[in-house]
Structures are given as structure tokens and as C-alpha cells.
Design a protein that fits this description.
The complex is a heterotrimer. Chain B is mostly helical. In chain B, 78% of the residues lie in helices and 0% in strands. Chain B is elongated. By secondary structure, chain C is an all-alpha fold. Chain C has helices at residues 2-20, 23-43, 58-62, 64-88, 90-95, 101-129, 140-166, 169-173, 175-184, 198-206, 208-221, 226-254. The B-C interface holds B 26, 29-30, 33-34, 37-38, 40-42, 44-49, 51-52, 173, 175-176, 180, 183-184, 187-188, 190-193, 197-202 and C 22, 24, 27-28, 31-32, 35-36, 39-40, 42-47, 49-50, 170, 173-174, 176-177, 180-181, 184-185, 188-190, 194-197, 199-200, 204.
């Protein structure tokens, strides 16, 4: 029988003791082999959701099935099919990478020979072969995250949870991790549930994105679908001569409705059927000169703004404490 | 300008140390408990030793042990400061202090000043407990003042020692290196019986131990019969001078490490 | 059952690896109790002349101390490590594996017991070199080792309960003075019948640490004292059982995995 490596949650709730709900009724479905990006600012409820789906925290209400197993009633079975790299790298600074992999393999019941082989395979895969016998306390942030990922894969899980896996990493390390996650999903068919506060990460990596704010799912869809909901691109322009601003506004407003623009400039959201070339031709025809002309495609931040009234970037409130 | 710089830095660092010590039970309680444990444990548990022939200390065994605990808590109080400095280095706070302070020797003074204030509180509590347990003090106000000043010098010396270690190692792994030498100095001395009743290897070691004259002087001040006090002050002054160099060169080492 | 044993083995091995890779801790836990033994024995040597003192040499009388003292150190270290595992999320990592609850908790504890036994062997060796003869002979050695392990387990399980209850290592470190008090307010440095202060003797009589020490001591200076051994094993086991029950309750609240 083929393994069910989907994730399904209905009405998932987690309450703080005498406090607000960290997760307030989340419904979601992640299809087998999909990379699902769970996007939201700090304190939105991302990690709490992950802790519930990975059986570390029982939901206050609602149900969830991971890999076909109920997270409350069949916790050990869920854990046997998932791997997780949580928000803290959670490594022992006095152990080496090889020690960690051996321990993880032993706890998952892998036979000794298989443990050794699998450990070596994963070290090569995440590029830690040379550092394998050095204590983790000497590792960089990127190396720790790579080891974290390797440990989550020891027992070949069909579902992988990654809680903000690239926070604090340099662009190169981030890119390398993305490559590995993409490969896991596409080549190995692993379902990936990824939480992030980085728009770019969700945009580039995820097949579908769920946007969470204040414990609720406010939007869900592919990045393209979500951005299309917001509308078409906008054009911004700053006139070379400040006195030309009214004429510039009049010209641009032929192509769409006015929106908030840069200081001293004009911006319009393009109507369907118009594009940047049309705008450039019109400006030439009117003899208007501009210093800056930008085509601004909607981003997931625009989606977040439209759904919540706040921007995601800079929307971080408090570091998310996992509700207990 | 330079004098004011050192003082203002020291004041700032001292304020923080005092504030943290008195608002953080985790910092104050061990500093208070250990002298108390030694005092109660030794004075209460070992008192029968005074029945050994030749043991002659008129104020009684509680006062005999109080002198040890006074100096032991003073020295170890300084070591606790070293733990704090090491922790500050581990958490990066020491670097912040070094960047902000125009006169960094004030940092060392500030840590030492906080140590002294904390110790004064601790020893006051232990003194009261001693009195409750029936300790008799034969020394007059001048004797007791001399005793307090002697102990403050010891406290300062302990802080300078631990500061020097902490500044060099810059990690809490330095703890045992701070503690063990002080512990050895304290205990390789006439702790339980007067010097003349020590035998064997311990007598030989205690003869050479600079802590022995401090302890004997402290006991004599408590007994109201000051003996060897001048030597004791000379010894502790010498320790302070030497350990000041140790602490300041430690500070330079920390500066070089960045 | 087999899986739980394998898990416990690997988790204990990890805890041991971690302890051994912090040589400062090992050194301190091993050396400090021995230094304490020798300085106290040197200082209280005259006590062996007191009427009714149960041994010819104070060193033989006091040799029991480091087994418990050293056990206290390794136990605190183990519980602190568990606290760190909780703080850093490493316990969550382990909880996501098939590891059963019991091995998750026992890893550090069993490592502490193993280190306690290792240390005990060193103390025995040093004591023998210093001229102490075991009245219980070679057969007494495994019993001494068993009691040393029990002492580590007793302190360790109390520390484990605190670590699980509070979820942080600092609270466990705050336990150290409390354990130190328990060690001092016992028959550690004087037999109970020779403790003068009634209140101290009463506390020592109620203190289970006294019985652990007296059981160990009996094997060194008396031979085979059934009552002392029964009390030692009884008190130690009762302490471990009570503390493990508290740990289980705390674990249930801490480990919310389904």
C-alpha cells in the first residue's frame, strides 16, 4: 500500500493558559510531494502549528492527520513518518556531526551497519564530510542548519517539517538549503511543510503558500494565484522636472487607477490590457521626461497587506513562544 | 579628566553589579549560603574538637570558626565576582563594557566595589546568625574595625585574583581555576584547630601559607588580644599589590583579544 | 523492552561523551572532593584522639566523604545538562524519535551513576595509597561502588525532578547550595554521638545523607555492619524512588508529546 504523505488539519486550535489563542482554527491540506510554505510574521502561530502537527503539543481543539495518522491518538506513528528541523537548531555542542547521526539513527532503531552507511550518506549530501568529526560548537550557523536537516532525514521520512530553516543564514547557505529542499520534494517525493517569515523563500520554494496572521490562515494558494488576487502590476514614475508632476499623473491615469506612489512621483495600477511599453510610448508622445520608471509586480507582502492591513516585512511583534 | 573617568566607569559597573546581586536571588543566595553552611556546619558539627588538650581560645568555638568564615567568605566573594565576569564575556556584555568605558581600569574597580558591597551584606547576616548561635566576641570596636578592614582587603584580593583569571580565560570554564587555588589557600591553614595543634604535613604547609597569619590575626582581634595584626596587614597588602598587576594584565589580555 | 534498553544505552553514552568532553567539570568533580578530604583530615586529625572516636585515623573515618561529595557534583552536572537539553530544544529533538520516555530521562542520570562509580574507584585507590585499610576487605569494594552509584542517583534524580519541573539549567545550579547544606548538616566530619550541639545532632539524625555516609564509612572502619548498610541502602533507595516519582510527574507536564 502506498504511503499517505499528506497533511490535513481541521479547526486546529491551541490556547495559551489564561491568554490569547496562539492558533485559532486552522484548516489546511498539504498534498503528497508538495512544498507548502507557511508564511507569517513572528508571533503569528507558525511554530505552534508545527509543534501540533509534529505531535510535540496536543491541540486544544480540532484535528490533524499527518501521514494518515491522527496526531493525538497515533503520536508514535506520526513520528515514525515525519522528520523535523525545528526553530532552534537543537544540537549538542559537545557532540560531533557523526555522533549526532549515530545517536539519531540508534533512537530510530536503525541497525548498526545501516546507521553508519546512512550517516555517511547524509554527511555527503549536506556537505559536512570534512567537519563530521568536529564538535558542533565550532560550527557556523549554516553548518548547524545543514546538520539539523540531515538529522531530520536519518530515517527517510516521507514528510518533512522545517520551522524557519534559513533564519540567520547568509544568502549562499540559504540558497544551498533551498536547493536541497527542492530536491527532496521533486526527486524523493517528500512532502515539505516549511514555515518562514521570508517572502522570497515562500515565493521561490513553495508550491503553495498559506499566510498566517494572529493564529489564523488569512490566505492560501500558489504564489501566482495569491498575487493575482491583488491585481495587476503598478507603474511608478518620478518626473525629472517637479513641475511636470500633474502632466505625468494625467498621462499615467490613462492606463489605470491611481495608487500611493513614491514621494514627488506618481503611481498607477495598470488596467488589464496595458503594459509598460504602452506607458513608455505615452510618455514619449507627451514629451515627458522621468528620472525613475518602475514596474512593480505584486508581492506576497502586498497580499499580506491586503489581507491584514499590515506589511509582513517589519510586522514582527514578539518572538513566537510556543504555547504550552 | 582621567581620574573622573576611572571613577565614573567604576561607579557604573559597580551599580550594575550591586543591582544584579540584590535583585537576583540566584546570585545572592549562593554567596550567602556557603559561608552560612561552613559556619553552621563547622561550629555546630565539629565543636567537640575544642576538648582536645591544648585548644585554648577564650571566646569559644563559634568565634573561632567565625574568623575563618569571615575571611573565607571575603575571599570566595571575590571569586563569585570572577564567575560574573566570565559570564559577561560569554554573553558578550563584557565587550560592550570595554567598548563603552573610556577608562577600562574602572571596569576592574567597579566589579571589585560591587563585590565588597555584596560581601558586607553577607557577612552582616552571618554575624547576626553567629550571635544567635551564642557566639561571644571579646574584641572592642577598634579590634572589630581592624577585623573588618582586614577582611575587606582579603575580599579585594580575591576579586582581583578571580578578575585576572576571568579576563584571561573569558569563559565560565574558568570557574574551577578561580576556586581551587583559593580553596586550597583557605583550607591548608589552621581551620579547625589553632596552629600549634596542627601536625604533620598540614603544619608544614600552614607555616608557609600566607592565609595562616591572616586567620590567626583575625582570631586574635575577635578575642580582643590582637597579635600579628601588622604582619597580617602587610601580607594582605602585598597580595593586593601583586594581584592588582595580575588583574590589570588580565584586562590588557582581554583587550588584545577584542 | 529491548528497544528501550538500546535507547537508554545510546542516551547514556551520549551523556557520558558530553561529560567527558568537558574536562573542567570532570576534573573538579574528581579532584575537589579529594582535596576537601585531605585538608579536612589534616585539620581534624586530632579528633581521632577524642574519647569514643570510632577510628584510629581521621583519614579512615573521613574517606566516606568524597564518595558522596563527588556523587553530588556529578549529579548536579547531569541535571544541569538535562536542563540545557530542555532549554536548547534538544529534548524536543529526542522526543521526535521513537525513544521512550524512561530512557529520555534516565540518560543523564545513568551517566552520573557511571561517573560516580569511576570516581569512587579513584578515591579508593587514593585512600589505599594514603594508608587506609578497608576493614570489609576486597568484598567491600563492590558494595562501596554500589553505594557511590546510589549517592549519585539520589542527588541526580532530585536534580532531574527540578530540571524537568523548571525547564532550565540555572534552577538546577541553584540546587547546589541546598545539597551542600544536606552534606554539611550530617555526620560528615564527626560521628553523631560526638556532635555537641543538640540541634545539629538532631538534624544529622534526620538527614538521609548521614546514613549514606555512615554506610560507606562502616565498610572502611568497621567491616560488615548490617544495620549501617541497611540504613544506607534503604535511605538512598527511598530518596531515588521519591525523586524519580517527582521526575515522572514533572516529565508528564514537560513532555507534552502525544
Amino acid at each position: 500500500m502506498a504511503r499517505d504523505n499528506s497533511i490535513h488539519a481541521e479547526g486546529l486550535v491551541r490556547e495559551f493558559k489564561k491568554g490569547p489563542r496562539a492558533v485559532d482554527g486552522i484548516d489546511l491540506h498539504v498534498s503528497p510531494g508538495e512544498i507548502y510554505g507557511f508564511l507569517g510574521p513572528n508571533g503569528a502561530g507558525k511554530s505552534t502549528t508545527v509543534h501540533m502537527l509534529t505531535t510535540l503539543l496536543p491541540p486544544t481543539a480540532g484535528t490533524a492527520r499527518v501521514g494518515g495518522y491522527d496526531v493525538v491518538r497515533e503520536g508514535p506513528k506520526v513520528r515514525s513518518v515525519i522528520g523535523a528541523a525545528l526553530q532552534e537548531a537543537a544540537l549538542d555542542p559537545f557532540l560531533t556531526a557523526r555522533d549526532h547521526l549515530r545517536l539519531q539513527g540508534a533512537l530510530h532503531g536503525l541497525p548498526r551497519a545501516e546507521r553508519k552507511r546512512r550517516g555517511q550518506e547524509l554527511l555527503e549530501r549536506v556537505g559536512l564530510t570534512l567537519a563530521a568529526d568536529r564538535k558542533v560548537k565550532g560550527y557556523s550557523g549554516g553548518m548547524k542548519r545543514r546538520l539539523d536537516l540531515a538529522l531530520a532525514l536519518v530515517h527517510r521520512p516521507s514528510i518533512l517539517f522545517l520551522d524557519e530553516p534559513t533564519t540567520g543564514l547568509d544568502p549562499q547557505s540559504r540558497s544551498a538549503l533551498w536547493g536541497e529542499v527542492g530536491r527532496l520534494a521533486k526527486s524523493d517525493g517528500v512532502t515539505v511543510f516549511l514555515t518562514t517569515q521570508y517572502l522570497e523563500e515562500a515565493d521561490i520554494l513553495a508550491d503553495r503558500v498559506g499566510i498566517i496572521a494572529s493564529g489564523r490562515l488569512v490566505a492560501e494558494g500558489t504564489p501566482a494565484e495569491l498575487k493575482a488576487e491583488i491585481g495587476s502590476p503598478s507603474v511608478e514614475a518620478i518626473p525629472t522636472e517637479a513641475g511636470d508632476r500633474p502632466a505625468l499623473a494625467q498621462t499615467l491615469e490613462r492606463f489605470g487607477g491611481s495608487v500611493e506612489g513614491p514621494r514627488g512621483g506618481v503611481a498607477v495600477r495598470l488596467d488589464h490590457g496595458h503594459d509598460l511599453a504602452d506607458v513608455v510610448r505615452a510618455l514619449d508622445a507627451e514629451g515627458l521626461q522621468v528620472d525613475n520608471l518602475h514596474l512593480h509586480a505584486p508581492t506576497l507582502d502586498d497580499v499580506f497587506l491586503a489581507k491584514t492591513g499590515h506589511r509582513l516585512e517589519g510586522a514582527a511583534e514578539e518572538p513566537e513562544a510556543v504555547a504550552s | 579628566m582621567s581620574g573622573a573617568g576611572v571613577v565614573s566607569v567604576a561607579r557604573g559597573v559597580a551599580w550594575r553589579g550591586i543591582h544584579n546581586a540584590f535583585t537576583n536571588p540566584a546570585l545572592l543566595v549562593p554567596a550567602l549560603m556557603f559561608p552560612m553552611i561552613f559556619f553552621v556546619g563547622f561550629a555546630g558539627g565539629v565543636a567537640r574538637i575544642r576538648q582536645v588538650p591544648g585548644f585554648d581560645y577564650p571566646p569559644g568555638y563559634e568565634a573561632f570558626q567565625f574568623a575563618f568564615v569571615l575571611l573565607q567568605s571575603a575571599a570566595m566573594g571575590g571569586v563569585f565576582t570572577g564567575f560574573g565576569i566570565a559570564r559577561d564575556f560569554e554573553h558578550g556584555f563584557a565587550r560592550r563594557l570595554m567598548l563603552a568605558a573610556p577608562r577600562r581600569s574602572g571596569i576592574v574597580l567597579g566589579y571589585a566595589a560591587a563585590t565588597m558591597v555584596r560581601w558586607l551584606f553577607v557577612i552582616s547576616v552571618v554575624f547576626v546568625v553567629g550571635l544567635v548561635l551564642g557566639m561571644q566576641v571579646f574584641g572592642g570596636p577598634v579590634d572589630l574595625l581592624g577585623l573588618l578592614v582586614l577582611a575587606l582587603f582579603v575580599n579585594f584580593a580575591g576579586a582581583l585574583w578571580a578578575t585576572g583569571v576571568a579576563m584571561r580565560v573569558r569563559s565560565t570554564q574558568a570557574g574551577p581555576f578561580m576556586q581551587l587555588p583559593i580553596f586550597l589557600l583557605l583550607f591548608l591553614a589552621p581551620v579547625f584547630v589553632p596552629f600549634q595543634l596542627l601536625e604533620g604535613w598540614l603544619r608544614s604547609v600552614a607555616t608557609l601559607n600566607p592565609f595562616t597569619p591572616l586567620l590567626e590575626a583575625a582570631r586574635s582581634l575577635l578575642a580582643g588580644a590582637p597579635t600579628g595584626v601588622g604582619v597580617a596587614f602587610l601580607a594582605v597588602a602585598g597580595l593586593v599589590v601583586a594581584l592588582s598587576l595580575w588583574a590589570l594584565t588580565g584586562l590588557r589580555s582581554a583587550e588584545r583579544a577584542g | 523492552m529491548t528497544a528501550a534498553l538500546v535507547q537508554a544505552t545510546y542516551l547514556t553514552r551520549r551523556a557520558l561523551d558530553r561529560a567527558i568532553r568537558q574536562p573542567g567539570h570532570i576534573f573538579f568533580a574528581l579532584v575537589f572532593p579529594m582535596v576537601f578530604l585531605f585538608v579536612v583530615s589534616g585539620g581534624l586529625d586530632r579528633a581521632a584522639h577524642l574519647p569514643g572516636f570510632p577510628a584510629d585515623s581521621f583519614l579512615a573515618f573521613a574517606l566516606a566523604i568524597p564518595f558522596v561529595h563527588g556523587g553530588l557534583f556529578v549529579a548536579i552536572n547531569a541535571a544541569v545538562e538535562l536542563g540545557r537539553d530542555i532549554e536548547t530544544g534538544f529534548l524536543n529533538r529526542l522526543a521526535l524519535t521513537p525513544a521512550r520516555s524512561v530512557p529520555l530521562v534516565l540518560g543523564h542520570l545513568l551517566a552520573a551513576a557511571a561517573l560516580g562509580v569511576g570516581q569512587a574507584l579513584v578515591y579508593l585507590g587514593v585512600g589505599t595509597l594514603a594508608g587506609v585499610r578497608l576493614e570489609s576487605g576486597l568484598l567491600g569494594v563492590p558494595v562501596i561502588l554500589a553505594l557511590a552509584a546510589l549517592a549519585s542517583l539520589a542527588f541526580g534524580s532530585l536534580g532531574t525532578a527540578i530540571a524537568l519541573r523548571t525547564g532550565n539549567s540555572e534552577s538546577v545550579q541553584g540546587l547546589f547550595p541546598v545539597f551542600f547544606v544536606a552534606l554539611f548538616l550530617s555526620s560528615m566530619v564527626m560521628p553523631r554521638h560526638l556532635i555537641e550541639a543538640d540541634w545539629f545532632r538532631a538534624i544529622a539524625t534526620l538527614n538521609p545523607v548521614s546514613y549514606l555516609i555512615e554506610g560507606l564509612r562502616s565498610l572502611v572502619i568497621a567491616g560488615w555492619d548490617g544495620q549501617a548498610l541497611a540504613l544506607a541502602f534503604g535511605c538512598g533507595t527511598a530518596l531515588v524512588a521519591a525523586a524519580l516519582a517527582a521526575s515522572a510527574a514533572a516529565f508528564g507536564e514537560r513532555m507534552t508529546r502525544t
